[in-house]
Amino acid sequence: MNNLIELQNISKRYGEDTILSNLSLTVKKGTALAIVGDSGGGKTTLLSIMGLLQNTTSGRILIDNLDVGALNQQEQAKIRGKYFGFVFQRARLINSLTALENVMVPAWLTLKDKTLENRAIGLLTHFNMEHRLNHKPQQLSLGQLRRVSLARALLLNPPILLADEPTNDLDPSLATSVADCLLQARNTGTSVVIITHDPALAARADEVFNLQNGQLYRVAH
Ligand SMILES: Nc1ncnc2c1ncn2[C@@H]1O[C@H](COP(=O)(O)OP(=O)(O)O)[C@@H](O)[C@H]1O
Ligand SMILES: [Mg+2]
After folding, report:
1. CA 92, 97, 103, 108 torsion: positive or negative?
2. Which one of 37, 78, 102, 122 is most buried, by most CB atoms within 10 A?
């Protein structure tokens, strides 16, 4: 089977508020899926549920055909580390470390491997950041910060990349280059799920869904 993520009849409520309502979605290997929708509609909530960062109220989640509902928190954390790379809305970089160190740090904790640095340099070079390896976050522009967090997310070649509004606040040419980097991850078999308000980015995804009233609607594009 080629399905990396299967959400089956997912619902999410906060108190009386229903954010996601009996929603189902399949993410196939090596494809890019964009999710658009109004602010406050539950897109970030949906992404964090997919990435096992948040529980559902009801429904089933299969990651690579494994029902994660049956797993305890520690086992879920293991799946999260094995399958997911995250690009959050805020870059969450460590200010005292260089760009290169920021890319390497999360992976270094679990995989002390000499090839890691070469791979990190390779990714940053690929993202046209080779002249900024030793810059600290406060010395980098927003677009550069976004590329550092993207390199960090891609370092271990995750099967799934989850990105929350990755081109937000970038001017069009930077947005295009960050989108290029994101979508290229498909070439190595990574599935990419992108939350976006950026029509140009959504248009480049393989599938687009609109999240509205807690439900996903396929958008023809
Ligand atoms: N931890 C929480 N507790 C209660 N309500 C929340 C929580 N997180 C998000 N919400 C609410 O859920 C709704 C969807 O939020 P979010 O997923 O961030 O939407 P989006 O990313 O589409 O803007 C919002 O109305 C938000 O206020
Ligand atoms: Mg959001």
Report:
1. negative
2. 102
Given 3.40.1160.10, 3.30.365.10, 3.40.50.300, 3.20.20.70, which CATH number is that of 31-57+74-219? 3.40.50.300
Neighbours of ion ligand 2 (CB under 5 A): 44
Q: What are the pLDDT digits (tens) for 136-158?
A: 999 999 889 988 999 999 998 89
Each domain of the chain, given as residue ranges in start order, spans 31-57+74-219
Q: Give the closest residue to 47 by CA, choosing from 103, 89, 106, 82.
A: 89
Nearest-angstrom CA–CA distance, 169 and 190: 25
Listed in sequence order, the residues at least 6 apart from 48 whose beta carbon sits closer than 8 Å to its beta carbon are 54
Tokens 């390199």 correspond to what residue?
Answer: 151
CA distance 207 to 216: 12
Residues 124-154 as b/e (b if ≥16 CB within 10 A, e otherwise) read beebebeebbebbbeebeebbbbbbbbbbbb
With a threshold of 0.90, does the pTM exceed it?
Answer: yes
| Contact between 32 and 186 (Cβ < 8 Å) | yes
The secondary structure of residue 164, as a DSSP letter, is E
Q: Is the CB of 196 under 6 A from ligand 1?
A: no
